[in-house]
Design brief:
The complex is a heterodimer of chains A (about 120) and B (about 425).
Chain A (H helix, E strand, L loop, with lengths): L1 E5 L8 E7 L2 E6 L5 H11 L2 E2 L2 E7 L5 E6 L3 E2 L3 H10 L1 E3 L7 E3 L9 E3 L7
Parallel strand pairs in A: 5-8
Antiparallel strand pairs in A: 1-2, 2-3, 4-7, 5-6, 6-10, 9-10
Chain B lengths: L2 E9 L3 H12 L5 E4 L15 E3 L8 E2 H14 L3 E3 L3 E5 L4 E6 L2 E12 L3 E3 L2 H4 L9 E3 H9 L8 E5 L3 H12 L3 E7 L8 H8 L6 E3 L1 E7 L6 E6 L12 E4 L2 E4 L3 E3 L2 H5 L24 E3 L10 H20 L7 E5 L3 E5 L2 E2 L5 E7 L3 E10 L2 E11 L5 E5 L10 E6 L2
Parallel strand pairs in B: 1-2, 1-8, 2-5, 8-19, 10-17, 11-12, 11-17, 12-13, 20-27
Antiparallel strand pairs in B: 3-4, 6-7, 7-8, 9-18, 14-15, 15-16, 20-22, 21-23, 23-26, 24-25, 24-27
Helix pairs in contact in B: 1-2, 1-8, 5-6
Classes of the chains: A alpha+beta (about 120), B alpha/beta (about 425).
Protein backbone atom coordinates (compact mmCIF):
# COMPACT_ATOMS: atom_id res chain seq x y z
CA UNK A 1 0.00 0.00 0.00
CA UNK A 2 1.01 3.62 -0.54
CA UNK A 3 0.45 6.54 1.77
CA UNK A 4 1.47 10.20 1.59
CA UNK A 5 1.73 12.13 4.82
CA UNK A 6 3.33 15.25 6.18
CA UNK A 7 6.07 14.75 8.74
CA UNK A 8 5.24 16.86 11.82
CA UNK A 9 8.57 16.59 13.62
CA UNK A 10 9.83 19.99 12.50
CA UNK A 11 8.62 22.99 10.52
CA UNK A 12 10.12 21.64 7.29
CA UNK A 13 6.95 19.54 7.06
CA UNK A 14 8.45 17.04 4.59
CA UNK A 15 5.96 15.23 2.42
CA UNK A 16 6.67 11.54 2.97
CA UNK A 17 5.83 8.86 0.39
CA UNK A 18 5.46 5.58 2.24
CA UNK A 19 5.18 2.14 0.69
CA UNK A 20 4.12 -0.49 3.23
CA UNK A 21 2.46 -3.87 3.72
CA UNK A 22 0.46 -4.25 6.93
CA UNK A 23 2.74 -2.59 9.50
CA UNK A 24 5.91 -3.42 7.55
CA UNK A 25 7.59 -0.45 5.83
CA UNK A 26 9.05 -1.17 2.40
CA UNK A 27 10.27 2.32 1.53
CA UNK A 28 10.08 5.96 2.63
CA UNK A 29 11.00 8.88 0.39
CA UNK A 30 10.69 12.67 0.54
CA UNK A 31 12.30 13.03 3.98
CA UNK A 32 15.09 15.58 4.26
CA UNK A 33 16.50 13.97 7.41
CA UNK A 34 16.71 10.45 8.92
CA UNK A 35 14.07 11.33 11.54
CA UNK A 36 11.47 11.27 8.75
CA UNK A 37 11.94 7.53 8.17
CA UNK A 38 11.47 6.85 11.88
CA UNK A 39 8.38 9.04 11.95
CA UNK A 40 6.91 7.20 8.94
CA UNK A 41 7.44 3.85 10.65
CA UNK A 42 5.88 5.11 13.88
CA UNK A 43 2.88 6.49 11.95
CA UNK A 44 2.23 3.14 10.29
CA UNK A 45 2.74 1.08 13.46
CA UNK A 46 1.44 3.27 16.29
CA UNK A 47 1.09 7.04 15.75
CA UNK A 48 2.32 9.09 18.72
CA UNK A 49 1.56 12.71 19.63
CA UNK A 50 2.45 15.25 22.28
CA UNK A 51 -0.38 17.41 23.57
CA UNK A 52 -0.61 20.74 25.36
CA UNK A 53 -3.43 22.01 27.52
CA UNK A 54 -3.92 23.78 30.84
CA UNK A 55 -4.99 22.89 34.37
CA UNK A 56 -6.86 24.81 37.05
CA UNK A 57 -4.68 26.84 39.36
CA UNK A 58 -5.64 27.82 42.91
CA UNK A 59 -4.48 31.11 44.36
CA UNK A 60 -2.44 32.19 41.35
CA UNK A 61 -2.24 35.45 39.44
CA UNK A 62 -3.93 33.53 36.59
CA UNK A 63 -6.92 31.14 36.76
CA UNK A 64 -4.97 28.36 35.04
CA UNK A 65 -1.49 27.23 34.14
CA UNK A 66 -0.45 25.77 30.80
CA UNK A 67 0.90 22.22 30.69
CA UNK A 68 2.35 19.73 28.21
CA UNK A 69 3.55 16.15 28.21
CA UNK A 70 7.22 15.32 28.60
CA UNK A 71 6.97 12.92 25.67
CA UNK A 72 4.57 11.69 23.00
CA UNK A 73 1.73 9.28 23.78
CA UNK A 74 -0.25 6.96 21.48
CA UNK A 75 -2.72 9.03 19.45
CA UNK A 76 -5.57 6.79 20.61
CA UNK A 77 -4.91 7.83 24.25
CA UNK A 78 -5.16 11.60 23.69
CA UNK A 79 -8.75 12.00 24.90
CA UNK A 80 -8.11 9.76 27.95
CA UNK A 81 -5.12 11.88 28.93
CA UNK A 82 -7.19 15.06 28.37
CA UNK A 83 -9.76 13.71 30.84
CA UNK A 84 -6.98 13.33 33.46
CA UNK A 85 -5.67 16.83 32.74
CA UNK A 86 -9.18 18.24 33.16
CA UNK A 87 -9.46 16.65 36.62
CA UNK A 88 -6.11 18.02 37.80
CA UNK A 89 -5.66 21.15 39.87
CA UNK A 90 -2.53 22.73 41.33
CA UNK A 91 -1.75 25.42 43.90
CA UNK A 92 0.27 28.54 43.12
CA UNK A 93 3.15 29.23 42.84
CA UNK A 94 4.08 27.08 39.86
CA UNK A 95 7.38 26.91 38.01
CA UNK A 96 8.12 25.72 34.48
CA UNK A 97 8.81 21.97 34.65
CA UNK A 98 6.82 21.32 37.87
CA UNK A 99 5.20 17.89 37.57
CA UNK A 100 1.41 18.22 37.64
CA UNK A 101 0.60 14.54 36.95
CA UNK A 102 3.40 11.96 37.19
CA UNK A 103 3.38 9.06 34.70
CA UNK A 104 -0.07 9.93 33.40
CA UNK A 105 -2.18 6.75 32.93
CA UNK A 106 1.03 4.72 33.15
CA UNK A 107 2.08 5.91 29.69
CA UNK A 108 5.59 6.75 30.81
CA UNK A 109 5.45 10.53 30.59
CA UNK A 110 4.55 13.34 32.96
CA UNK A 111 2.24 16.32 32.61
CA UNK A 112 4.42 19.35 33.42
CA UNK A 113 3.76 23.07 33.83
CA UNK A 114 5.00 25.28 30.99
CA UNK A 115 4.87 28.67 32.67
CA UNK A 116 5.75 30.38 35.92
CA UNK A 117 2.75 31.71 37.83
CA UNK A 118 3.08 33.53 41.13
CA UNK A 119 0.75 33.78 44.12
CA UNK A 120 -2.08 36.30 43.91
CA UNK B 1 7.67 66.80 31.41
CA UNK B 2 11.34 65.82 31.58
CA UNK B 3 12.82 64.14 28.58
CA UNK B 4 14.78 61.04 29.57
CA UNK B 5 17.77 60.17 27.42
CA UNK B 6 18.18 56.52 26.41
CA UNK B 7 20.64 54.96 24.02
CA UNK B 8 18.10 52.45 22.71
CA UNK B 9 14.33 52.24 23.27
CA UNK B 10 12.65 48.99 22.26
CA UNK B 11 8.91 49.23 21.58
CA UNK B 12 7.30 45.87 22.35
CA UNK B 13 8.45 43.14 24.78
CA UNK B 14 7.44 40.09 22.75
CA UNK B 15 9.86 37.60 21.18
CA UNK B 16 11.34 40.24 18.82
CA UNK B 17 11.98 42.88 21.47
CA UNK B 18 13.32 40.39 24.03
CA UNK B 19 15.80 38.78 21.63
CA UNK B 20 16.98 42.20 20.43
CA UNK B 21 17.45 43.47 24.01
CA UNK B 22 19.49 40.46 25.13
CA UNK B 23 21.75 40.53 22.07
CA UNK B 24 22.21 44.29 22.27
CA UNK B 25 23.25 44.11 25.92
CA UNK B 26 25.71 41.32 25.13
CA UNK B 27 27.12 43.48 22.32
CA UNK B 28 28.02 46.09 24.92
CA UNK B 29 25.08 48.50 24.73
CA UNK B 30 23.94 49.09 28.32
CA UNK B 31 21.42 51.92 28.22
CA UNK B 32 18.40 49.99 26.94
CA UNK B 33 14.70 50.29 27.83
CA UNK B 34 11.94 47.90 26.74
CA UNK B 35 8.40 49.34 26.74
CA UNK B 36 5.56 46.80 26.88
CA UNK B 37 1.84 47.59 26.94
CA UNK B 38 0.76 44.30 28.56
CA UNK B 39 1.15 43.44 32.25
CA UNK B 40 4.07 41.08 31.56
CA UNK B 41 6.73 40.43 28.96
CA UNK B 42 6.42 37.67 26.35
CA UNK B 43 3.96 39.04 23.80
CA UNK B 44 1.78 36.60 21.92
CA UNK B 45 3.86 33.63 23.15
CA UNK B 46 2.09 33.91 26.52
CA UNK B 47 -1.04 32.41 24.98
CA UNK B 48 0.61 29.98 22.51
CA UNK B 49 0.64 27.01 24.89
CA UNK B 50 1.07 24.40 22.11
CA UNK B 51 4.55 23.03 21.50
CA UNK B 52 6.82 23.20 18.47
CA UNK B 53 8.67 26.41 19.32
CA UNK B 54 12.45 26.51 19.51
CA UNK B 55 13.50 23.70 17.16
CA UNK B 56 15.70 26.06 15.15
CA UNK B 57 16.82 28.42 17.94
CA UNK B 58 17.29 25.93 20.81
CA UNK B 59 17.28 22.52 19.08
CA UNK B 60 14.35 21.32 21.20
CA UNK B 61 10.59 21.67 21.09
CA UNK B 62 9.05 24.04 23.64
CA UNK B 63 5.68 25.63 24.32
CA UNK B 64 5.33 29.39 23.72
CA UNK B 65 5.51 30.42 27.40
CA UNK B 66 8.65 28.30 27.90
CA UNK B 67 10.28 29.81 24.81
CA UNK B 68 9.51 33.34 26.03
CA UNK B 69 10.74 32.57 29.56
CA UNK B 70 14.22 31.68 28.27
CA UNK B 71 14.57 35.23 26.96
CA UNK B 72 12.82 36.85 29.95
CA UNK B 73 15.27 35.06 32.29
CA UNK B 74 18.17 36.50 30.28
CA UNK B 75 16.65 39.99 30.39
CA UNK B 76 16.43 39.67 34.19
CA UNK B 77 19.92 38.20 34.61
CA UNK B 78 21.47 40.91 32.43
CA UNK B 79 19.59 43.60 34.34
CA UNK B 80 17.94 45.07 31.24
CA UNK B 81 15.38 47.75 32.13
CA UNK B 82 11.77 47.28 31.08
CA UNK B 83 8.42 48.92 31.82
CA UNK B 84 5.22 46.90 31.48
CA UNK B 85 1.65 48.28 31.47
CA UNK B 86 3.17 51.08 29.39
CA UNK B 87 1.80 52.04 25.99
CA UNK B 88 3.81 54.02 23.49
CA UNK B 89 1.53 56.67 22.01
CA UNK B 90 3.99 58.73 19.99
CA UNK B 91 7.17 58.35 17.96
CA UNK B 92 8.91 61.03 15.92
CA UNK B 93 11.44 60.83 13.12
CA UNK B 94 14.09 62.29 15.46
CA UNK B 95 13.47 59.36 17.82
CA UNK B 96 11.40 60.93 20.60
CA UNK B 97 9.23 58.26 22.19
CA UNK B 98 6.12 59.24 24.17
CA UNK B 99 4.68 56.59 26.47
CA UNK B 100 1.86 56.46 29.00
CA UNK B 101 1.29 54.27 32.04
CA UNK B 102 -0.52 54.56 35.41
CA UNK B 103 2.54 56.50 36.58
CA UNK B 104 1.86 59.20 34.01
CA UNK B 105 3.30 60.40 30.74
CA UNK B 106 6.94 59.83 29.79
CA UNK B 107 9.11 61.16 27.02
CA UNK B 108 12.33 59.50 25.96
CA UNK B 109 14.96 60.77 23.55
CA UNK B 110 16.71 57.75 22.04
CA UNK B 111 19.76 57.41 19.79
CA UNK B 112 18.09 54.39 18.20
CA UNK B 113 14.55 53.00 18.35
CA UNK B 114 13.72 49.34 17.75
CA UNK B 115 10.22 48.59 16.49
CA UNK B 116 9.02 45.15 17.64
CA UNK B 117 5.28 45.74 17.99
CA UNK B 118 4.26 42.54 16.24
CA UNK B 119 1.07 42.20 14.25
CA UNK B 120 -2.68 42.03 14.77
CA UNK B 121 -5.44 39.93 13.26
CA UNK B 122 -7.70 40.76 10.36
CA UNK B 123 -11.29 40.88 11.59
CA UNK B 124 -14.80 40.31 10.27
CA UNK B 125 -14.93 43.99 9.29
CA UNK B 126 -11.98 43.59 6.94
CA UNK B 127 -13.77 40.74 5.14
CA UNK B 128 -17.20 42.41 4.95
CA UNK B 129 -19.08 39.15 5.60
CA UNK B 130 -22.80 39.93 5.17
CA UNK B 131 -25.41 39.02 7.76
CA UNK B 132 -26.34 39.76 11.34
CA UNK B 133 -24.02 40.71 14.18
CA UNK B 134 -24.53 38.10 16.89
CA UNK B 135 -22.09 37.16 19.64
CA UNK B 136 -19.93 34.14 18.86
CA UNK B 137 -17.71 35.52 16.09
CA UNK B 138 -14.08 35.64 17.23
CA UNK B 139 -10.68 35.98 15.64
CA UNK B 140 -8.51 32.94 16.38
CA UNK B 141 -6.15 34.90 18.62
CA UNK B 142 -8.99 36.31 20.71
CA UNK B 143 -10.44 32.82 21.18
CA UNK B 144 -6.94 31.72 22.18
CA UNK B 145 -6.72 34.49 24.79
CA UNK B 146 -10.08 33.52 26.31
CA UNK B 147 -9.31 29.80 26.45
CA UNK B 148 -5.61 29.79 27.34
CA UNK B 149 -5.30 32.87 29.55
CA UNK B 150 -8.79 33.60 30.93
CA UNK B 151 -10.09 30.03 31.33
CA UNK B 152 -13.26 30.83 29.34
CA UNK B 153 -14.53 28.42 26.70
CA UNK B 154 -15.86 30.37 23.72
CA UNK B 155 -18.26 27.83 22.18
CA UNK B 156 -19.31 24.25 21.58
CA UNK B 157 -20.09 23.90 17.88
CA UNK B 158 -17.46 25.63 15.82
CA UNK B 159 -16.82 26.64 12.22
CA UNK B 160 -13.43 28.04 11.28
CA UNK B 161 -12.95 30.45 8.39
CA UNK B 162 -9.41 30.64 7.04
CA UNK B 163 -6.67 28.03 7.22
CA UNK B 164 -4.10 30.19 9.01
CA UNK B 165 -1.91 28.42 11.55
CA UNK B 166 -3.61 29.94 14.61
CA UNK B 167 -7.03 28.88 13.31
CA UNK B 168 -5.86 25.29 12.87
CA UNK B 169 -4.16 25.27 16.27
CA UNK B 170 -7.42 26.53 17.82
CA UNK B 171 -9.37 23.80 15.96
CA UNK B 172 -7.27 21.23 17.82
CA UNK B 173 -7.36 23.11 21.11
CA UNK B 174 -11.16 23.43 21.07
CA UNK B 175 -11.56 19.77 20.09
CA UNK B 176 -9.38 18.74 23.06
CA UNK B 177 -11.57 20.91 25.30
CA UNK B 178 -14.70 19.10 24.14
CA UNK B 179 -16.02 21.34 21.36
CA UNK B 180 -17.09 19.96 17.99
CA UNK B 181 -15.19 21.67 15.19
CA UNK B 182 -17.32 21.03 12.11
CA UNK B 183 -14.98 22.22 9.38
CA UNK B 184 -12.36 24.71 8.23
CA UNK B 185 -13.16 26.75 5.11
CA UNK B 186 -10.46 28.46 3.04
CA UNK B 187 -11.27 30.91 0.23
CA UNK B 188 -7.99 30.27 -1.64
CA UNK B 189 -7.47 27.06 -3.62
CA UNK B 190 -4.54 26.22 -1.29
CA UNK B 191 -4.09 26.23 2.51
CA UNK B 192 -2.56 29.34 4.09
CA UNK B 193 -1.05 27.54 7.10
CA UNK B 194 1.82 25.07 7.44
CA UNK B 195 1.37 21.48 6.16
CA UNK B 196 2.36 20.05 9.55
CA UNK B 197 -0.53 21.90 11.18
CA UNK B 198 -3.00 20.49 8.65
CA UNK B 199 -1.67 17.07 9.61
CA UNK B 200 -1.51 17.35 13.40
CA UNK B 201 -4.38 19.80 14.06
CA UNK B 202 -6.98 18.83 11.44
CA UNK B 203 -6.27 15.35 10.02
CA UNK B 204 -5.53 13.90 13.47
CA UNK B 205 -9.01 14.92 14.68
CA UNK B 206 -10.92 14.24 11.48
CA UNK B 207 -11.68 17.92 10.88
CA UNK B 208 -12.32 18.50 7.16
CA UNK B 209 -10.63 21.38 5.28
CA UNK B 210 -12.59 22.76 2.32
CA UNK B 211 -10.57 24.86 -0.12
CA UNK B 212 -12.18 27.46 -2.43
CA UNK B 213 -15.02 27.99 0.08
CA UNK B 214 -16.00 31.00 2.16
CA UNK B 215 -18.64 32.16 4.62
CA UNK B 216 -21.25 34.24 2.79
CA UNK B 217 -23.75 34.91 5.58
CA UNK B 218 -23.77 35.08 9.37
CA UNK B 219 -27.09 34.21 11.05
CA UNK B 220 -28.32 34.67 14.64
CA UNK B 221 -29.97 37.35 16.76
CA UNK B 222 -28.18 37.21 20.12
CA UNK B 223 -25.80 34.30 19.68
CA UNK B 224 -24.57 32.90 16.38
CA UNK B 225 -26.96 30.22 15.12
CA UNK B 226 -25.61 29.28 11.69
CA UNK B 227 -23.35 30.34 8.85
CA UNK B 228 -23.94 30.03 5.15
CA UNK B 229 -20.95 28.76 3.19
CA UNK B 230 -20.47 29.03 -0.59
CA UNK B 231 -17.95 27.73 -3.06
CA UNK B 232 -15.93 30.41 -4.84
CA UNK B 233 -14.72 30.65 -8.44
CA UNK B 234 -11.12 31.26 -9.54
CA UNK B 235 -11.64 35.00 -8.96
CA UNK B 236 -12.71 34.15 -5.38
CA UNK B 237 -16.30 35.26 -6.03
CA UNK B 238 -19.04 33.11 -4.41
CA UNK B 239 -20.81 30.84 -6.90
CA UNK B 240 -24.62 31.27 -6.67
CA UNK B 241 -26.43 28.01 -6.01
CA UNK B 242 -23.59 26.45 -3.98
CA UNK B 243 -24.78 27.86 -0.62
CA UNK B 244 -24.89 25.40 2.26
CA UNK B 245 -25.94 26.15 5.84
CA UNK B 246 -23.96 24.96 8.87
CA UNK B 247 -25.44 25.17 12.36
CA UNK B 248 -22.89 26.51 14.84
CA UNK B 249 -22.58 28.74 17.90
CA UNK B 250 -19.07 29.94 17.13
CA UNK B 251 -17.23 31.24 14.08
CA UNK B 252 -13.46 31.53 14.38
CA UNK B 253 -11.67 33.77 11.87
CA UNK B 254 -8.09 32.95 10.93
CA UNK B 255 -7.83 35.17 7.89
CA UNK B 256 -4.49 36.87 8.06
CA UNK B 257 -2.23 39.05 10.15
CA UNK B 258 -1.30 42.69 9.62
CA UNK B 259 1.92 44.24 10.96
CA UNK B 260 1.01 46.89 13.55
CA UNK B 261 2.72 49.97 12.11
CA UNK B 262 0.78 52.99 13.41
CA UNK B 263 3.83 54.23 15.36
CA UNK B 264 6.14 53.61 12.39
CA UNK B 265 3.91 55.76 10.18
CA UNK B 266 3.86 58.50 12.85
CA UNK B 267 7.65 58.62 12.65
CA UNK B 268 7.59 58.87 8.84
CA UNK B 269 8.80 55.31 8.20
CA UNK B 270 8.03 54.23 4.65
CA UNK B 271 6.07 50.95 4.39
CA UNK B 272 6.19 48.26 1.71
CA UNK B 273 2.64 47.66 0.42
CA UNK B 274 3.48 43.97 -0.13
CA UNK B 275 4.61 43.17 3.43
CA UNK B 276 2.70 46.03 5.12
CA UNK B 277 5.88 46.41 7.18
CA UNK B 278 8.74 48.89 6.91
CA UNK B 279 11.10 49.01 3.96
CA UNK B 280 14.47 48.04 5.47
CA UNK B 281 18.08 47.44 4.53
CA UNK B 282 20.15 44.41 5.59
CA UNK B 283 20.62 46.04 9.02
CA UNK B 284 16.83 46.08 9.55
CA UNK B 285 17.09 49.88 9.42
CA UNK B 286 13.97 51.61 8.11
CA UNK B 287 13.90 54.62 5.79
CA UNK B 288 14.24 56.80 8.94
CA UNK B 289 17.89 56.61 10.10
CA UNK B 290 18.18 55.13 13.61
CA UNK B 291 14.76 53.49 13.56
CA UNK B 292 14.99 49.70 13.13
CA UNK B 293 12.32 47.00 12.80
CA UNK B 294 12.21 43.21 13.13
CA UNK B 295 9.78 40.36 13.71
CA UNK B 296 6.11 40.42 12.80
CA UNK B 297 5.94 44.22 12.64
CA UNK B 298 8.39 44.00 9.71
CA UNK B 299 6.84 41.02 7.93
CA UNK B 300 4.61 38.26 9.28
CA UNK B 301 6.67 35.18 10.16
CA UNK B 302 5.43 31.60 10.44
CA UNK B 303 7.99 30.59 13.10
CA UNK B 304 9.04 32.47 16.23
CA UNK B 305 12.57 31.06 15.87
CA UNK B 306 13.04 33.23 12.80
CA UNK B 307 11.70 36.27 14.67
CA UNK B 308 14.39 35.75 17.32
CA UNK B 309 17.14 35.26 14.74
CA UNK B 310 16.07 38.35 12.77
CA UNK B 311 15.95 40.44 15.95
CA UNK B 312 19.41 39.26 16.99
CA UNK B 313 20.76 40.27 13.58
CA UNK B 314 19.07 43.65 14.07
CA UNK B 315 20.70 44.01 17.52
CA UNK B 316 24.19 43.53 16.07
CA UNK B 317 23.44 46.28 13.56
CA UNK B 318 22.00 48.64 16.20
CA UNK B 319 25.11 48.13 18.37
CA UNK B 320 27.23 49.13 15.39
CA UNK B 321 24.92 52.08 14.64
CA UNK B 322 25.22 53.61 18.13
CA UNK B 323 28.99 53.06 18.28
CA UNK B 324 30.25 53.90 14.79
CA UNK B 325 27.36 54.26 12.34
CA UNK B 326 26.23 52.07 9.45
CA UNK B 327 26.98 52.25 5.72
CA UNK B 328 24.28 53.30 3.24
CA UNK B 329 22.39 50.59 1.37
CA UNK B 330 22.10 51.73 -2.22
CA UNK B 331 21.26 48.54 -4.09
CA UNK B 332 17.51 48.06 -4.37
CA UNK B 333 16.04 44.53 -4.38
CA UNK B 334 13.25 44.11 -6.95
CA UNK B 335 10.98 41.10 -7.38
CA UNK B 336 9.25 39.49 -10.35
CA UNK B 337 7.52 36.24 -11.29
CA UNK B 338 6.14 34.35 -8.33
CA UNK B 339 8.34 36.07 -5.73
CA UNK B 340 5.83 38.00 -3.64
CA UNK B 341 8.29 40.18 -1.70
CA UNK B 342 11.74 40.22 -0.16
CA UNK B 343 13.09 41.48 3.16
CA UNK B 344 15.39 43.41 3.12
CA UNK B 345 14.34 45.57 0.19
CA UNK B 346 17.72 47.38 0.01
CA UNK B 347 21.28 46.10 0.48
CA UNK B 348 24.80 47.56 0.63
CA UNK B 349 26.53 44.84 -1.36
CA UNK B 350 29.42 45.06 1.14
CA UNK B 351 28.76 41.67 2.74
CA UNK B 352 26.88 38.46 1.92
CA UNK B 353 23.19 38.94 2.65
CA UNK B 354 20.30 36.50 3.13
CA UNK B 355 16.94 37.56 1.73
CA UNK B 356 13.66 36.27 3.17
CA UNK B 357 10.81 35.86 0.71
CA UNK B 358 7.49 34.15 0.07
CA UNK B 359 6.02 32.89 -3.22
CA UNK B 360 2.66 34.25 -4.38
CA UNK B 361 1.20 30.76 -4.82
CA UNK B 362 2.26 27.15 -4.15
CA UNK B 363 4.56 25.67 -6.81
CA UNK B 364 6.92 22.70 -7.12
CA UNK B 365 10.40 22.34 -8.60
CA UNK B 366 11.18 25.99 -9.25
CA UNK B 367 14.45 27.87 -9.33
CA UNK B 368 14.85 31.27 -7.73
CA UNK B 369 17.40 33.39 -9.61
CA UNK B 370 19.01 36.62 -8.46
CA UNK B 371 20.15 38.92 -11.28
CA UNK B 372 22.08 42.17 -11.20
CA UNK B 373 21.47 43.74 -14.58
CA UNK B 374 22.08 40.84 -17.00
CA UNK B 375 24.42 38.98 -14.62
CA UNK B 376 23.13 35.92 -12.78
CA UNK B 377 24.41 36.41 -9.21
CA UNK B 378 23.01 33.26 -7.63
CA UNK B 379 20.41 30.58 -8.18
CA UNK B 380 18.75 28.04 -5.90
CA UNK B 381 16.36 25.16 -6.54
CA UNK B 382 13.29 24.67 -4.35
CA UNK B 383 11.42 21.34 -4.41
CA UNK B 384 8.34 23.16 -3.09
CA UNK B 385 7.53 26.80 -2.50
CA UNK B 386 4.47 27.55 -0.36
CA UNK B 387 3.01 30.96 0.60
CA UNK B 388 2.69 29.52 4.14
CA UNK B 389 6.46 29.04 4.40
CA UNK B 390 8.98 31.85 4.43
CA UNK B 391 12.03 30.92 2.37
CA UNK B 392 15.56 32.28 2.27
CA UNK B 393 18.20 32.82 -0.39
CA UNK B 394 21.78 33.98 0.16
CA UNK B 395 23.40 36.56 -2.13
CA UNK B 396 27.22 36.45 -2.23
CA UNK B 397 28.69 39.98 -2.01
CA UNK B 398 31.70 38.98 -4.13
CA UNK B 399 29.50 38.85 -7.22
CA UNK B 400 27.79 42.24 -6.70
CA UNK B 401 28.78 45.59 -8.21
CA UNK B 402 27.79 48.93 -6.62
CA UNK B 403 24.86 51.04 -7.71
CA UNK B 404 22.89 48.49 -9.76
CA UNK B 405 19.63 47.03 -8.43
CA UNK B 406 19.19 43.27 -8.12
CA UNK B 407 16.12 41.35 -9.18
CA UNK B 408 14.79 38.13 -7.60
CA UNK B 409 12.74 36.00 -10.00
CA UNK B 410 11.36 32.46 -10.29
CA UNK B 411 12.16 30.13 -13.21
CA UNK B 412 10.45 26.87 -14.19
CA UNK B 413 13.58 24.86 -15.03
Amino acid sequence: MNRTLTCILCPNGCELEIVYEGTQIQSVSGNKCPKGAGYAEQEIKNPMRNIASSVNLEGGTMPLVSVRLTGPIPKAKIMDVMAEIRKASVKAPVQIGDVVIADVLGLGCDVVATRNVGIK
Amino acid sequence: MNTIKKQVVIIGGGPGGLAAAVKLKKAGVDDILILEREHELGGILRQCIHDGFGLTRFGETLSGPEYAQRFIDEVEELGIAYKTDTTVIGLTGDKKVTAVSRDGLFEYQADAVILTMGCRERTRGALSIPGERPAGVFTAGVAQTYINLKNKMVGRKVIILGSGDIGMIMARRMTLEGAKVEAVFEIQPYPSGLPRNIEQCLNDYGIPLYLSHTVTKIKGHHRLEAVEVSQVDEKLNPIPGTEKEYECDTLILSVGLIPENELSLMAGVELDPRTKGAIVDEFCQTTVPGIFAAGNVLHVHDLVDFVSLESEKLADAVAKFVKEGLPQAEIGVETAGLVGYTVPQKITGDADVTLSFRPRKPVRDRYVDVYQGETLVTSKKYVKLLPAEMEKIKIPAAKLVPGVNVKVVTRDE
